[in-house]
Amino acid sequence: MEQEIPQADFALVGGSGTLSSNFPVNSVSRDVKILSDNLYFTTPYGRSPAFRLFSVGEKRVLTCRMHGWRSGVTRADASRQVFWTFREAGVKRILSEGGVGTVNPLLDPRDFLIPDDYLDFSVRKDVMLDGRYLLIMRDALCPELRETLIAATKRRFTGRVFTRGIYAVTDGRHFESPAEIAMMRGQADIVGQSIVPEVYLAREIGACYAGLYFVVNYGEGLRREWSHETMKDIFYQDAPMIGEIILDAIRSIDARGTHCACRELRKETLLKDVYDSISAKG
Ligand SMILES: [Zn+2]
């Protein structure tokens, strides 16, 4: 059944870390409540994926699993359904998480990284909502949310936490070839499939966006062959901790940024005037 979109200031775009823990159902935190589940909405881009609404203290958080990806729906449409819903819900601050591969040879599985920039190697069609805005991609990953994620990760995790780095985005679903990893080396630190188009759509709706990423495999040809078993272990063993880090971060942030400029980094597009003047000249 289709539902009314509830209001929420916060959102989590769930990735592989929170998937296996059915986040936040299995959380041990007492201030976490599931408010409603299996919410489906009608969007201009098709029926949305299932959303869950929960609260952390007084804060209301909307979340969906695995970026809304599902079979029979293009990833572009899935992303539009998710971010259109966030806009209607009034979401202002969005967190994400996910497993990534390495490009920087100094990284190992189970390292955490909170990137401060990205490189878009996707062959995406132009994924946007209504295209009213020119999107300035300076500080695409909100500095304030990043600071909060870094602090929350260091409180819960005693291993290595990298406080900056570049996330290279590829389309997937396949992983990258050794030649692709070699090409990215020196340009990026980690590689994955899920920070784009999310950063563009977050900026378009005027929301902050940042993500917590954990290394699950070595980039192909970089160090040694990685094992699928290790990757699975990381997903299942570390998922509860990743969920608790996200909840800690939500507890620490306000609905609106006090020292980030995310909302000012979208401007009304000038193209409308350009098109109007061309047609006026006939
Ligand atoms: Zn921000």
Describe the structure.
The chain has 282 residues and is an alpha/beta fold. The protein has a single domain, classed as 3-Layer(aba) Sandwich (Rossmann fold), CATH 3.40.50.1580. Helix content is 29%, strand content 24%. The chain has seven helices and 15 strands. Strands 1, 2, 5, 6, 7, 8, 9, 11, 12, 13 and 14 form an eleven-stranded mixed β-sheet that branches. A two-stranded antiparallel ribbon has the order 3-4. Helix 3 (143-156) crosses helix 6. The longest helix is centred in the C-terminal third of the chain and has 25 residues, at 228-252. The chain is globular and about 50 Å long. It starts with 9 loop residues before the first strand and ends with a helix. The structure holds zinc ion. Zinc ion is lined by residues 142, 144-145, 208, 257, 260, 262.
Summary tags:
binds zinc ion; 282 residues; Rossmann fold; 7 helices; alpha/beta
> What fold name stands as the CATH topology?
Rossmann fold
Measured distance between first and last alpha carbons: 50 Å
Number of domains: 1
Structural class based on helices, strands and sheet pairing? alpha/beta
Beta content = 15-25%
Q: Which series of helices and strands comes N to C?
A: EHEEEEEHEEEEHEEHEHEHEH
Mean pLDDT: 91
Residues in helices, as a percent range:
25-40%
Bound molecule kinds, no repeats: zinc ion
